[in-house]
Amino acid sequence: MKDDKAGTSFRLAPMSPLSRTCTLFLLALPPTFLIAALYLTSVLTELTLITLLFTATYIWIWLWFRPTRFIVHRGGIEVCWPLKRREIAQEDISNVRLMDVQQLKREIGWGVRIGAGGLWGGFGWLWTKRRGVVQMYVSRTDGYVWLDCTGKRPWLITPEQPETFVRALSRLYPLE
Question: How do the domains of the chain map onto residue ranges?
Fold first, then answer.
């Protein structure tokens, strides 16, 4: 967490053990394919292309899907990725609350992720039985923050220090 003139900045939370394990497994795939390509010259081209495809996909996820931080400021919340930014305006936020896994299950029912998942967390959309499509940017399996947005999709995020994030948001403008 970092306070500055632009607001209070919260990094994406560190990965949970499950996310870390999935990430390490997935990051091992391109080098494994590359090493296999060196030994299996009969499929060198195919394995090299697969390696390049995996690597390009990983870079795309890191730059476009995985947010780096959430900034709480007077106008709302700014979500920052390496290549883009998105604003959730103060007037669009109708409620913010912490959730654990059980509360999340009760809120959404079951869901299907649409986007990137497994590599550094889950990012993109979450289609849910009870709430429809939810904007999802999570790196953990705990410490969820749920943002209800008036007339827009809700957000599910995992900022570092989720309790402090919710307090900072509530302190700037009390939510009903």
Answer: 1-176
What pLDDT digit, counting tens, does each position of 147-159 carry? 999 989 999 999 9
Question: Do the beta carbons of residue 48 and residue 23 sit within 8 Å?
Answer: no
- 3-state secondary structure labels for all residues of the chain: CEEECCEEEEEECCCCHHHHHHHHHHHHHHHHHHHHHHHCHHHHHHHHHHHHHHHHHHHHHHHHHCCCEEEEECCEEEEECCCCEEEEEHHHEEEEEEECHHHHHHHHCCEEEEEEECCCCEEEEEEECCCEEEEEEECCCCCEEEEEECCCCCEEECECCHHHHHHHHHHHCCCC
The residues, any chain, with a CB within 8 Å of residue 63's CB and separated by 6 or more, are: 81, 82, 83
Strands 122-128, 144-149: pairing is unpaired
Which residues, listed in sequence order, are joined to residue 12 by a DSSP beta bridge? Answer: 159
- When computed from its CA atoms, the radius of gyration of the chain, rounded to whole angstroms, is 18
What burial letters (b/e) apply to 32-43, b meaning 16+ CB within 10 Å?
Answer: ebbeebeeeeee
pTM exceeding the 0.70 threshold for the entire prediction: yes
